[in-house]
# Entry
Amino acid sequence: MPRRAPDKVVEHRMSLSTQSSKLMREALEAQKRSSLVGSIGSVSNSIGVIAVAGGVGLAAYAFYSWSGAILPKITDTVKDLSGELGNWAMKNTSAGQDFESLLQRLYSQNKEQNIRTQEAVDELDAIINDPNSSANQVSAATAQKARIIAKAKKRNQAFQKQLKELV
# Structure
């Protein structure tokens, strides 16, 4: 809805004394100086940010250049130290000794199972190679041998997987 045109104008004036005018001028000048100082501070902050970014870039470039020569040595040293620390922990802590005994138990179980598997395969080979064995005995022994070998392969794969998870 449009406004109505004013029918009278009222003017309000504020008169300040000389002292009040002087204080008002000083306050305005202080505000101008403050604004100028603030803008100078803003510019100096921007320059500071640019300088820091340049310094970080320069440091990154210097590290990149330096790392080509020294980084492989540092990596090798860290690997050696971590290996030595691991060996020390395996020998001198109860957790390391428990882990080592677990590994020895797993290896011995796997070795025993492989020996039993080889003995069973040798018995089946004897049946297969025996000239007195019937065709049914040979085919049954061959099938049994294939099953034993497949089972042993799966067992060895599971053993390797266990080792990878442990180590």
Summary: The two ends are 83 Å apart (CA to CA).
